[in-house]
Amino acid sequence: FDYQELLHNSTFCLVPRGRRLGSFRFLESLQQAACIPVLLSNGWELPFSDVIQWNQAVIEGDERLLLQVPSTVRAVGNERVLALRQRTQMLWEAYFSSVDKIVLTTLEIIKDRVFSHISRNKYMWNSLPGSNKSVSRKFFACLCAGVSPGQEFTAVINAVSPLVSQSQPIMKLLQVVSKSKYCSQIIILWNSEKPQPSRSKWPPMPVPLTVTDGRRKTTSRFLPQVAIETEAVLSLDEDTVLLTSEVNFAFLVWRSFPDRIVGYPPRSHFWDPLKRAWGYTSKWTNDYSIVLTGAAFYHRYYHHLFSHYLPQSLRTLVDRTSNCEDILMNFLVSAVTHLPPIKVAQRKQYKELPGVQGAKSVPWANPEHFNQRQECINTFASWFGYMPLVHSQFRLDPVLFKDQVSVLRKKYKDMERA
């Protein structure tokens, strides 16, 4: 028999003790395409057992009762076999597939012991995004199978300014978004200090309009709301300036890349060797690694991960500073996909509108706002244990967007005239 092929085609792999309690056969079985280790070494403590729940990945036998092993493994149901196999592959890929990962895992465990107040619990160590939850399996299975996402989206607009005029930017934004033939509904997340205005204050819409209380929490824009029935979410700030054609084009791009963030304003991170820390920049360059969620599409599944996978400490940081929620969402999506976001065409003539009377000054005008984002980058990277953001130079423009051809041939001709 070919030993490697035999391991590869096996459901269970026996792992008896070697010269000592441990054996190289343990990592060998983890590596071989989800072969479930059956441990036969009484008293052996598995690696990283203080954080890894090995009972969800291996079967422990008694080396004194070898004849019972066949009946033990035959009693394992198909669903548990699948769960065990998935868990072994997640653990192998996350912690054992290279010397670097083994060393980094060791250092992370030591750090958690020293700084116990910010340590990750066992759920975080054993449930990486997409690892073993039914919602994760369904989501990623559909993407891998090439199943096209739905043909409509839900717009979620974060409103922080009081409604004092019908000429405010949010009013124009509502008209622009509601005109999209792909828009299913609009949800206004009311995060203003002022009470919600009555329904009569909002303009009539061709699509359902819902105003919900955001409780003045920055992270509320990423809550997994029951009202969101579509797979696609269009996240918007109240002062976002877009055309309906821009919204339509970005949505069609997202349908081709439903696992990514697809949007307009790009930002980037970099390593500062002098400060020995990560930096954040808003300068327009060829490279980008972040697409701000003030105007971006993403899958609603990431609302679930944002609320249930990320630790409360990071969400509390975002709410306390009213900042960095967009960076944190980009960290999360890149950690799941190992891919960068996607930037789509944006009008060069974009200008920031003057502030609304009674509204707070724009946050990016405050130097402290930028300093907070620098700190967030490093705080998030510290929790993830590495820098998940990925740089990209990939941009998508509509066909014939800037070409000198007949206007009749241009599907998104309004974008060029703006």
UniProtKB/TrEMBL annotation:
Reactions it catalyzes: 3-O-{alpha-D-GlcNAc-[(1->4)-beta-D-GlcA-(1->4)-alpha-D-GlcNAc](n)-(1->4)-beta-D-GlcA-(1->3)-beta-D-Gal-(1->3)-beta-D-Gal-(1->4)-beta-D-Xyl}-L-seryl-[protein] + UDP-alpha-D-glucuronate = 3-O-{[(1->4)-beta-D-GlcA-(1->4)-alpha-D-GlcNAc](n+1)-(1->4)-beta-D-GlcA-(1->3)-beta-D-Gal-(1->3)-beta-D-Gal-(1->4)-beta-D-Xyl}-L-seryl-[protein] + UDP + H(+); 3-O-{[(1->4)-beta-D-GlcA-(1->4)-alpha-D-GlcNAc](n)-(1->4)-beta-D-GlcA-(1->3)-beta-D-Gal-(1->3)-beta-D-Gal-(1->4)-beta-D-Xyl}-L-seryl-[protein] + UDP-N-acetyl-alpha-D-glucosamine = 3-O-{alpha-D-GlcNAc-[(1->4)-beta-D-GlcA-(1->4)-alpha-D-GlcNAc](n)-(1->4)-beta-D-GlcA-(1->3)-beta-D-Gal-(1->3)-beta-D-Gal-(1->4)-beta-D-Xyl}-L-seryl-[protein] + UDP + H(+)
Localisation: Endoplasmic reticulum membrane
Top-rank lineage group of the source organism: Eukaryota
GO molecular function terms listed in the Swiss-Prot or TrEMBL record: glucuronosyl-N-acetylglucosaminyl-proteoglycan 4-alpha-N-acetylglucosaminyltransferase activity; metal ion binding; N-acetylglucosaminyl-proteoglycan 4-beta-glucuronosyltransferase activity
Pfam family, one: Exostosin_GT47
Pathway: Protein modification; protein glycosylation
Glycosyl transferase domain: residues covered: 153-401
Membrane topology: Single-pass type II membrane protein
Cofactor(s) annotated in UniProt: Mn(2+)
Main location: endoplasmic reticulum
One BP term from GO: heparan sulfate proteoglycan biosynthetic process
Domain Exostosin GT47: 3-75
GO CC term (a single one): Golgi apparatus
Function per UniProt: Glycosyltransferase required for the biosynthesis of heparan-sulfate.
Family the entry assigns: Belongs to the glycosyltransferase 47 family.
Protein's name in the database: Exostosin glycosyltransferase 1
Organism: Tetraodon nigroviridis (Spotted green pufferfish)
